[in-house]
Structure formats: structure tokens, C-alpha cells
Write a structure and sequence with these properties.
It is built from seven helices and 51 strands. The protein is mainly beta and 822 residues long. It folds into seven domains: 105 residues, Immunoglobulin-like (Sandwich), CATH 2.60.40.60; 99 residues, Immunoglobulin-like (Sandwich); 100 residues, Immunoglobulin-like (Sandwich); 95 residues, Immunoglobulin-like (Sandwich), CATH 2.60.40; 98 residues, Cadherins (Immunoglobulin-like), CATH 2.60.40.60; 106 residues, Cadherins (Immunoglobulin-like, Sandwich); 108 residues, no CATH class.
Length: 822
Amino acid sequence: MDLITSISHNELMLSMSIAAYLLPFLFHTCLSVDLTYYMKEGDNPNTYLGDVASDSNLMNTIPHQDRNLIQFVFLNQKDTDRPFLFSISKRTGKLYSAQTIDAETLCTRNTECFIMVDVAVRKATSFIKIIEVKIIIKDMNDHKPEFPLKQFSIEFSEDDKKGIRKIIPSAQDGDIGLQNSQITYHLKKNIDEPFALNVSRSVDGTSELVIILQETLDREMKASYRIQVVAKDGGSPPEQNVLDLYISVMDVNDNPPVFLQSIYNVSVTNEHHGVSPFIILSASDLDSDKNGRVVYRYSPQTSDAAKSHFKLNEITGEIFLQKKFLSGQKLTHELYVKATDEGVPALSSMAMVQVNVINQQNNAPKIEVTFVSVSNSHTILENIEVGSFIAYVKVIDHDAGLNGEVTCDLHHDKFQLQTFNTKKYKVIVKNPVDRETQDHHDITIRCQDRGSPPLSSVNKFSITVMDTNDEKPRFSKETYKFTIYENEKSKIPVGYINATDPDLGPGGKLTYSLLTSNKNFLPFYIKDNGLILTVMRLDHEFQEIYHFQVLVKDSGMPSLNNTVKVIVKVKDKNDNAPFFTFPNVNPFTLNVHYHPYRTNNITYLRASDSDSRENAFLKYEILHGNDKQLFIVNPYTGLLSFNRVVTLRDAGTYSLQLGVKDSGIPVQTAMTNITLRLTVSNKTSEIVNPMHVQSENKIQLYLVVVIVVIAITVSVPVTAAISICIIRCNNRRNVSNDNHSSLCACEQRNTKCPFHVSPSWPRVPMVQTADGAMSSNSLPPRPKKGPNLGNEFSCVDNCTDNKAASLPPDSDIIYQGLLLQP
């Protein structure tokens, strides 16, 4: 009968243990879970757990063109002590472990070890779904059973009867899994030793070990025994440990306290708070004296939160509610009470008190706001789309009935509150935001229950609008114009290019650069602050004006840019001296034949200056060699001409030093020398007695008239014949005189003669170079050198003077010089 009672009691204890184990499992199974994954404790970080995107069939509901915009992120859970146990790929939704997980640290013993995570699915900046994922952590057999002592001593009385029981310490296994923490025991002893081991399970999952006396003991035959208790867990492979047990033969406490029932179920309200107990536990002990006196204490399996609310009287077994429950606190608590007698060794038993808290109070709802951004910060980008999910609002109100029914509202022109689930909301963007207009927004969420009277709560927070690169740089001018003098040193500032950008951070950080083509070289560079400088000395004569563009761009993503036109004008300095282009050699020889009936102009001096404006405004002058004041030069045109009437006595060679100067500051000058060989026509002397020339002409005319009259009177044929002869004779003389006046026949050496220019030639300087080529296409070709001629032309002035009167007195003749080779 005792054996049947013992078996029934063990089966009952095992059933209660299994029920206690399955109760949390069934509770978690009722939770709303979208996906479940499994992993082993001790797995390395980055262990692949599952594909949230694929397993949730989410991607099948999203258009193909939008799938690249989908991102997966964790919602920060405020009730999670370890927010970095797992990681998820933003793009693929694949879930991995983030560190090596110890199941014993996370979970309690003999319970299913799992972690709940919320995965938010985001499209661009908008959150579209939250997936609740349950990750079950499989316990590994990484702990062996451990006895509290390496050795333990018990005593049996020599008058103890068969079946006397002695409790010994049981082993504890640190693993939380049912198999890995399930310990089996066996006794290692000699075959003649009268002891057996009995194992029973308590409601808290622990084992109670009892050494049973199988035969009566005779202390005089053997006073002590040494046996071993081997504890082995149910892992694969199993782990084990050994307790050395020393048994002394004497009288001991052999009856443990016994509760009336092993599980108590009670309900309490906050009205139980006070001096009255809501339950009294009682455990009876058949022993007497101190072996039968029982004390009550909480088992280590009782949570600290339960101990803080429920006070246990260790002597009487009374349990009191010493602290009221607040809204939102746990409503079910398990109290594990251990009854222990004062015998040696002490015997004990365990009972569980399940307390159900009935909440009848009305408490104001509690508002929790969690931002769904990656950094969980109160910030959004100014380019966020309308309708974007920015915050997750969870309302906590554990009151019963209408006291727990809550409604929430949010009044704002940019944001609104939408119902997400029961007592869950989401804050979305209602209208576009602009940082440049307003960089932050104050938001108030108000929630109120339906109690009587209704209670409400307010949660206020601010959202900061972060800048995006939506403004391109702007210039203060459409065109920048700068002026700089030539010949300045390199790295001379030209001017500033000023651009502004209202964006912040990299979006407002500007860099400048010059836009040039491969064909054009710009002698400038620009610094980061927009200052343009030269890279070399500039030359006005090389290039007077530079046209180019400046590119400014910010450092935002993507970068925005703008361009502006820049004109740099190089101002001239008087850095170039004038130089003669005619004459183009120094010294220069010019042969001039003067004829009184021709122009007084000799030639034009020509000079050039590479500078511009006043620095290139030239003036000519005769510096030396004009002692007779025979020559004069026009200071502006450079025309060299005779200053007075030329006589035969003026013939000769003149060494003229001519100068040209510009009008710059300081003045730049140039000089050249002309050797002018002047020959004067013989007709110059006839100008002294013009009446003689007139009377000679009159005599010739009278002679012709007399001859004609005589011829007419004598005979018509004779007169006609004579007249014809005279006319023909006179024509021959005229032709001969014309030929001699237009061109001199060169017959003698070492006698120089100029080329006379007809009045129809243009008034430009004509220069005959050393090889005889003329500087103007209108000039006749140079006569070829004869075999006996050197580098000079020789001729005899055979020109007659009787045709001089036929030239117009104001004909503009410019005398051309002959360049003589040394």
C-alpha cells in the first residue's frame, strides 16, 4: 500500500511539473506571431536564421519596379535588454544572429526560450508593414549537473526500521532545455550496502533525492558507509557529476513537512492591501519538537517582482499584499513557497501559489512613441514623401472595461495619426515639409479612455526637419567683370566670385572651378573661397580680354551646380617701345631728286607700337641733321617733306636722325638714321628769270606765224609743205623731251638717280629694297642689273628741261629711296 501511494504521489508530482512547464509554452503559443525561426545557443555570429522577405510572401504583393525600394529594419523595443542580438539585411530581409547567444542568460529554466522581434518593412522612407518574428533558441547541453556540495553526510538511527528515508542534496543543471536539464540519478554502492535512492519531482521542476534504508542497521557491526550518487542529464552526449555520500548510523529527523495541496490558485484585488492575509499556507510535519517545527520561505524560483508585492510570514505561512499594483504591471504571479522543518538534516517540501490580480481601478493611459527611422531619432528629411510612416505609437492601458478603451488624436497641419491596430497608431506625413521654411515641428498626441470620469494623457515631442540638397548654388551677379594690369606678378588676386547655398552641411559647402576647353589656356585659377588669381604674368599685347565660365557645385548627394560668365580685361601698360617699320633698316639711304614743279613731299615714316590707346599714340620728330631747316616731318602722320624752297646749293648728302615716341607714362622712344642724298634739277635755276622763258617761247611763236604768212602769200602748196615740215619737226622735239623727262637712261656707273613717280601713283611710302623689289604692287619692276653694275644703280641725267612746264605745279610726288647695301 505504501508503494502504491508512493507511485501515485510521484505520478501526481510529475504531472504537475509537466503542466507547469507547458503553461508558459501554451501562453506564448497564443501570441500573434507572423514567422518563427530556430537557432542553437552558442552559434557563431552571422548565423543565417531565415528570409523574412520570402517567408512572409511580402515581395509577391509589391510591384516589381518598387522592390528595389523595399528595406527591412528592426523596430526598437523598449522592453528588450539586448537590442543587438540579431541583424537583418536591409535589402534582402535575411535574418542573422549578431552575437553568440547564451540561452541560460536570456531564458528561465524549463521554458521554451525565444525572443520576439518586430521587423518594419519600409518602402523608401515610408513604412508599410510590421512583421512579428519569433526566434526560438534551442538549448545546448553545455552545463553538467552540479551538486551544491562535493560530499554530504547523513545519519541513520540504528533502531530505524526498513523504509526510513533521508533527504540528500539534489543536483542542478544550468541548461534550460527540458532534456538537457532533466537529471536522472543512480546510486553507486556495494551490493551488500542496505541503501536505495528514491527520486521525486517538485512542482518547480527540481528533484528531491531520498536515501531509503532497506534493512535495519547495526551500529556495532558497521558505524558508517560511503556511497556515491551519480547525476546524469538527458543531453546528447549526457553530462554527469558525482556526490560522495557519507552515512553515519544514529537517530535523525525522518519526516518532511507536507502541504495540504501542492498548487494553490487565488485571486486578489488592490482592496486586499493591508494587514489581512489573502491566503494562509499550512504544512504538517509528523516529527516532534524541533524536527516538527516548520518555517516558510520563498523559493529562488519566485521572482523579485512577486516578492516585492507579496509578503510571506515565515512562521504562520500567511501571505499579504503589501504593495498595490499599478496600471500596466503583470497580472499573474507564481509564488513558490518552501516549508522546511528544523531537524538535522532539515526536511522540506514545496507548494506553488498562483495569484491572479483583478484590476478594478481606472488609470490614465500611457503613450509610448517609437520612431521608425534607423537611428530612432526625432528627425525626418525635408524631401520625405507624403504618407510616410515616421513614428509608431503604442498606448498601454490595462484597465478593465470602458476604463481600458482608449481613443487618440493628433492635430497638426503637417502630420496626422492613423489607426494601426488595437491601441496602436502610426504617425504619417500629411503635407510636404521644407527645412528652409521651418526646421522643426512640435507635435502633441492626446489619448483618453472611456472611464467615468475619463482619464487622458499627453505625449509631446518635436520633429526636426533635416536638410537635403534641394537648393542649387546661386551667384550674386549674372556676369562678373574684373580688370587687372598686365605684367603683374603671378598669384595676383583678380576678383571674388560670390555664390550662396541655403542648404546645410555638405549641401551648402561650395567648391569652385574654371571651365576651359582643351584649345584655350586660361592663366587663372580659383580658390575654394571663390578668389580668382593669376598663374603667370599677363600680357595685354598677347590677349586683351578673357572670357570664361566658373562652375560652382555643392558637396551634397546628389551634387548641384551652377555656372556664371566671367570677363577679365587686361589693362595695358606702356611696356613696349615703338619701332620703325619704314625705314626698316638703320641706317637707311634715300636718294631724292628734286624738281621744282613737283610735290615737296619726300616720303612717309612709319612706326608701330604693340601697346594700345595712349601708349600706342605716336609722334614723329627730327632729332639731328636738319641744321639748314630744309626738312620737316609731320608729328602725327610721319610725312617727311621739304620745309622751304630748294635751290641748287641745297644739293648734297644729309644725315638725318629721326625719332618716334609714344604718349604713355613713362614715354618710350625709338630712333633711326636716314642718309638722304639730294640732287636738284637744273630747271631750278630758270625759276630765277621766268621772263626769259616767256620771250623765247613768244619768238618761236612769231617765227611760226611769219613763216606761215609768207608761205600762204607765196604759194599754197609751198606753204602747206613748209607747215607740215615745221609741225612734224616740232612734234619730234616734243616727243624727245617727254621721253627724257619720264625716265633717265642709265649709261654711266657710280651716278645715282631716283625713280620718278608719276602723279597718278598713290600717296604711300614706296621703298626699293636691296634686291630691287618695290614695296608696292603699283610700282614698275626694278631694272635688272647689267654685267658691269654693282650693288648700286648708275645712270646719266639726260632729261631735258623744256617739258617741266607741262607738269602740274601742285602734283603730289613722293620721292622714293634706294636702299644701298654696304
